[in-house]
Amino acid sequence: MSILDRYEMVCGVEVHVELATKTKIFCNCSTEFGGEQNTHACPVCLALPGTLPVLNRGVVNLAIKAGLALNCEIAEFSKFDRKNYFYPDSPKNYQISQYDLPICKQGWVDIEVDGEKRRIGITRAHMEDDAGKLVHSGETISTSSESAVDYNRTGVPLLEIVSEPDMRSIPEVLAFLEELVKIMQYTEVSDCRMEQGSIRFDINVSLRPWGQKEFGTRTESKNLNSFSSVRRCLEYEIGRQAELLDDGDEVIQETLTWDEGRGITLSLRSKEEAHDYRYFPEPDLPPLVIDREWVENVRQALPELPAARRERLKSLGLSDYDAGVITNTKALSDFFDEAMKRYADAKNLANWTMGEYTRLLNAQGVSVEESPVKPQQLATLLGLIDKGTISGKIGKTVIEEMFASGKDPEVIIKEKGLAQISDEGALLKIVDEVIAKNPQSVEDYKAGKTQAIGFLVGQTMKATKGQANPGVVNNLLKERLALQ
């Protein structure tokens, strides 16, 4: 009997999203990633005596946008609080966060797993400042003898999104996180670059015997930065908790770190409760009052969200799978929509976008944004194929050259002499030569084996280096063979 036959998994997540502002939440320091250590820090970041925070209006705007995209209520009145804890990457010895009056609450995100739709609740989303970064001497904090602190990230604006414990399987957790990341990207609330720590996941998971209503004791695994790590961490933690419960032991409520190399969770500290942080209102910031006009202006400016775009693409004839692949990233989805303005066959465009175009992106290791082939160029190429200027096979050669040179397809076709040959006079001599060289195929065709003509078409295409119009070749062959 498997673990999930004995126990039901209960999972909720906390997602820390770096907001896409140019400056920090309470000062004018740059939020740019990758600066030399401790160069994007000022007296406010470092909490020097006499400094005061000033709230960045852009942070509030992005928080409202994210909340609306997550179907949250936007509070007219919210406030900041001090979350007190002592840790070397927090120079203030507290974090400016929001506790009992967050800016966003009571939202939801719809997901679909194995054809079943689920609605995952959003408890809240609140603004806060990020801590610095510990630079460990070893591979992980647990294997390091010493750590240094880089304060560049201190004060970078975060939105912490807290879900309800509504997820009951690992695929549901991954589907929720993937949809959440897409929403943040589509709204441009965050670039969500996981490799840079722009979005980080804390996973709360517990087990309970099937039929039990009360939740089991949960653990929290901190700062996971990839979907793969989330999956592996959950698999390990579910197994670990199940083994404890099977042996009659108790699961300890604690905060864990995920050791990617060893594939295990390790204890960091006992899990804190709210009272451990001694929250109290931030005295240096006034309450935040948001009028309805501000909220409605943000609502009107919301872009098309991933779920809506998937439905729109399906209405154009794309399958669930195709629509899902195309909308997987905002960049690819925008590329497709831009190409659609110039080429109306959505299904054929999707096939080329997911096929040759994506293959070449991966082969060259470039993103959609870096692609030398622009949407209008792909649309033009497909139009040329449809008109018979080139064949689909030649089209694959042309798009490779487009990636290599960045040139328009018409230019490449002209320079390399790749235009499809449709002139019957020009093809007739080649067709006669193919017939003469392949008497057995001719006899097979006359004997009723009509598939033999396919071989002859192939030989003609080979002789013309793929430039012959297959339809014209097929007709000429039938005409010439009928005369023999």
From TrEMBL:
EC code(s) of this entry: 6.3.5.-
Substrates-to-products reaction catalysed: L-aspartyl-tRNA(Asn) + L-glutamine + ATP + H2O = L-asparaginyl-tRNA(Asn) + L-glutamate + ADP + phosphate + 2 H(+); L-glutamyl-tRNA(Gln) + L-glutamine + ATP + H2O = L-glutaminyl-tRNA(Gln) + L-glutamate + ADP + phosphate + H(+)
Superkingdom per UniProt: Bacteria
Record keywords: ATP-binding, Ligase, Nucleotide-binding, Protein biosynthesis, Transferase
GO biological process: glutaminyl-tRNAGln biosynthesis via transamidation; translation
Signal peptide interval: none
GO molecular function: asparaginyl-tRNA synthase (glutamine-hydrolyzing) activity; ATP binding; glutaminyl-tRNA synthase (glutamine-hydrolyzing) activity; transferase activity
Domain Asn/Gln amidotransferase: 334-481
Family: Belongs to the GatB/GatE family. GatB subfamily.
Subunit details: Heterotrimer of A, B and C subunits.
Described function: Allows the formation of correctly charged Asn-tRNA(Asn) or Gln-tRNA(Gln) through the transamidation of misacylated Asp-tRNA(Asn) or Glu-tRNA(Gln) in organisms which lack either or both of asparaginyl-tRNA or glutaminyl-tRNA synthetases. The reaction takes place in the presence of glutamine and ATP through an activated phospho-Asp-tRNA(Asn) or phospho-Glu-tRNA(Gln).
Protein name, UniProt field: Aspartyl/glutamyl-tRNA(Asn/Gln) amidotransferase subunit B
Organism: Desulfitobacterium metallireducens DSM 15288
